């Protein structure tokens, strides 16, 4: 797990070392253990290393294959790298790192090596023979990778902060910023920083070193994971047999993700997903410590009691970070700085404190239960129209009653309000049509893949598949990666193993969706967890109330602040927009984002301006 950066400048020029060094410095938290910079002709490569597998100097990056053709800077993990080594030459290895395995795999298979890798990755691979630089990103867009181009050339980095450090002019992309402030996460290539785009998940971008021309190609397509033969085979199995298959794949996935030469722990909320991951990791022989957060001032959503119950039941020690009310403003500002986007929810701010406690305990790797809800329709209201058409009326009614029991009657007016948000800020919809079109195209392709199923079934299956690329899923994974890496801790997601996701996407839909969320996962969990954990009601993880974080805020900051200026919206029109009812967290963290990333204020300066009555703000 590392941070990467670099550039390709026009041919005949050589990258200056100073901006490369500034990029390396900006990424220090992602890789405090080692740093490397390599320049070849008009290419500069930067690496910051968090040493997880083979912490010795043999894992130093950038790293070049023995033949001298390929040099890579790599962020991520290749969990099956030992299996790949068995297929490569058995001699001449200088160490045990997966980065060495990856660069030699590129030398052997070319860019096809990327698809052979099981694990999240973002990499830059210099191919001297074909005079190109390949930028690649993992299947499910967990590892961040940003690109920009200016008069000096093409620049890339794991974080936008590194691009700013290299000299990118900090200006907002008004359409993208307005969308995130008024609608939440924005999918697609756009970012709130003008001129900066995200490399798409499952994509390789080739940059020609002589012309600087760029071309994208997909090395992974989530729709191709739908396999009619496999789905037909699974449909013939009993519920118990399917649970056994998922149990086996999850255990294998977790064993792969225990690959580490440093201590491993888990993030434990006490919910079904994280408790099952913790139980399976402990059952695989890992010596674990679990980590959680507690916010005593918000007892309705504080899950620390459930985490304690799970840790006692599993016999695994638990470390708890307690968050007092006065810390919320600071944590919110810090979380925006780390995440580099406005936030969807205040709970994101707890990730870095949990990771920091893990780091204090000597733990560099945390397993999480993320992605189970997206794969198995675990949320309360995933695609309500499609869900209602697929489920029988009594089952749909029971799910609705369960949602009200878990969250109170406010879920009904909140759902109505969200659907009524039709007012758009000027420019707010400019980036939205692209994202909507991309989702519609993905759903249409998924419906073709599930084409042998009856309409109500295939429509819901298609929507659930599209969630893995065209929803808040990218936000979910990036928020965890960036905020945990703020404390130099790697997170791993067993539910996103390619074998696990392929199995789930081909399961009979009844095993994914039922009267209670995630029926097949509850069947698996019943084999490893006490009944009280299996039966626990679903609760949105880290669903803390942002209103508890902003009572000390300057009330004029939003009405006449940096966000309105950045969007160039007249005050009267802006007051109408912010009174329309969108979540306060979106607007406040968009205000924080503008101050941090385009006005270039420090975290302390933003605290002083926005939260002057918070202890320690000045």
How is this structure best described in words?
With 618 residues, the chain is α+β, with helices and mostly antiparallel strands. It folds into three domains: 2-220, 4-Layer Sandwich (Glutamine Phosphoribosylpyrophosphate, subunit 1, domain 1); 238-377 and 473-534, HUPs (Rossmann fold); 550-610, no CATH class. It contains 27 helices and 17 strands. A six-stranded antiparallel beta sheet has the order 2-3-1-9-8-10. A six-stranded antiparallel beta sheet has the order 4-5-6-7-11-12, with helices on one face. The chain has a five-stranded parallel beta sheet with strand order 15-14-13-16-17, sandwiched between helices. Helix 8 (272-283) links the parallel strand 13 and strand 14. Helix 7 (239-257) runs antiparallel to helix 19 and helix 10 (328-339) crosses helix 26. The protein is globular and about 70 Å long. Mean pLDDT is 89; it is low at 409-431.
CA-atom Rg in angstroms? 24 Å
Supply the CATH superfamily name of the largest domain.
Aminohydrolase, N-terminal nucleophile (Ntn) domain
Proper CATH architecture of the largest domain:
4-Layer Sandwich
Assembly classification: single chain
Helix content: 40-55%
User: What is the top-level CATH class of the largest domain?
Assistant: Alpha Beta
Shape: globular
Strand-pairing-aware structural class = alpha+beta
Taken together, the total number of domains comes to 3
Largest sheet: 6 strands, antiparallel
End-to-end distance, in Å? Answer: 35 Å
Within the largest sheet, what's the order of strands?
2-3-1-9-8-10
* Overall pLDDT confidence: 89
Poorly predicted ranges (pLDDT <50, ≥5 residues)? 409-431
CATH topology of the largest domain: Glutamine Phosphoribosylpyrophosphate, subunit 1, domain 1
**Total beta-strand segments:** 17
Number of helices: 27
């Amino acid at each position: 797990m590392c941070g990467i950066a670099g550039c390709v400048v026009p041919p005949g020029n050589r990258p200056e070392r100073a901006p490369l060094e500034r990029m390396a410095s900006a990424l220090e938290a992602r890789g405090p253990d080692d740093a490397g910079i390599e320049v070849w002709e008009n290419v500069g490569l930067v690496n910051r290393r968090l040493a997880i597998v083979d912490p010795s100097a043999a894992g130093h990056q950038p790293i070049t294959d023995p033949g001298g053709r390929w040099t890579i800077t790599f962020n991520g993990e290749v969990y099956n790298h030992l299996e790949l080594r068995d297929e490569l030459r058995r001699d001449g290895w200088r160490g045990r790192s997966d980065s060495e395995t990856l660069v030699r795999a590129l030398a052997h298979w070319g860019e096809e090596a990327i698809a052979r890798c099981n694990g999240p990755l973002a990499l830059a691979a210099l191919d001297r023979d074909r005079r190109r630089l390949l930028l690649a990103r993992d299947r499910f867009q967990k590892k961040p990778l940003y690109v920009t181009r200016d008069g000096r050339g093409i620049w890339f980095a794991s974080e936008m902060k590194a691009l700013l450090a290299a000299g990118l002019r900090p200006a907002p992309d008004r359409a993208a910023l307005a969308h995130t402030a008024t609608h939440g996460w924005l999918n697609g290539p756009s970012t709130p920083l003008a001129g900066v785009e995200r490399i798409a998940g499952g994509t390789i971008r080739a940059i020609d070193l002589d012309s600087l021309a760029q071309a994208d190609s997909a090395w992974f397509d989530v729709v191709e994971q739908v396999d009619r033969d496999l789905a037909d085979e699974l449909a013939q199995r009993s519920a118990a047999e399917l649970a056994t298959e998922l149990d086996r794949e999850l255990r294998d996935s977790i064993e792969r993700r225990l690959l580490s030469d440093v201590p491993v722990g888990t993030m434990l909320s006490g919910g079904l997903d994280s408790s099952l991951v913790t139980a399976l990791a402990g059952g695989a022989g890992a010596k674990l410590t679990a980590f959680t957060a507690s916010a005593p001032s918000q007892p309705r959503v504080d899950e620390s009691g459930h985490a304690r119950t799970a840790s006692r039941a599993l016999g695994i020690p638990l470390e708890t970070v307690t968050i007092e009310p006065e810390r919320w403003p600071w944590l919110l500002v810090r979380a925006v700085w780390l995440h580099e986007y406005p936030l969807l929810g205040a709970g994101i701010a707890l990730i870095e404190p949990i990771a920091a406690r893990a780091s204090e305990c000597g733990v560099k790797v945390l397993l999480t239960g993320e992605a189970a809800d997206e794969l198995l329709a675990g949320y309360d209201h995933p695609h309500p129209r499609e869900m209602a058409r697929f489920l029988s009326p009594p089952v749909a009614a029971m799910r609705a009653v369960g949602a009200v029991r878990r969250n109170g009657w406010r879920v009904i007016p909140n759902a109505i309000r969200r659907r009524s948000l039709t007012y758009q800020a000027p420019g707010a919809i400019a980036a939205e049509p692209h994202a909507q079109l991309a989702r519609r195209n993905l759903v249409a392709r998924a419906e073709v893949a599930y084409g042998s199923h009856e309409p109500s079934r295939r429509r819901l299956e298609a929507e659930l598949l599209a969630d893995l690329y065209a929803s808040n899923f990218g936000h979910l994974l990036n928020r965890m990666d960036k905020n945990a890496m703020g404390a130099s801790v790697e997170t791993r997601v067993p539910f996103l193993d390619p074998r696990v996701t392929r199995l789930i996407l081909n399961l009979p839909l009844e095993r994914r969706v039922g009267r209670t969320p995630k029926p097949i996962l509850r069947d698996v969990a019943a084999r490893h967890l006490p009944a009280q954990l299996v039966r626990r009601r679903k609760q949105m993880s880290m669903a803390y109330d942002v209103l508890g974080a902003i009572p000390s805020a300057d009330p004029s900051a939003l009405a006449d602040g940096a966000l309105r200026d950045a969007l160039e919206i007249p005050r009267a029109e802006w007051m109408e927009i912010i009174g329309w009812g969108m979540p306060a967290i979106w607007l406040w963290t968009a205000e924080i984002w503008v101050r941090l990333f385009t006005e270039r204020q420090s975290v302390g300066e933003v605290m002083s301006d926005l939260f002057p009555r918070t202890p320690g703000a000045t």
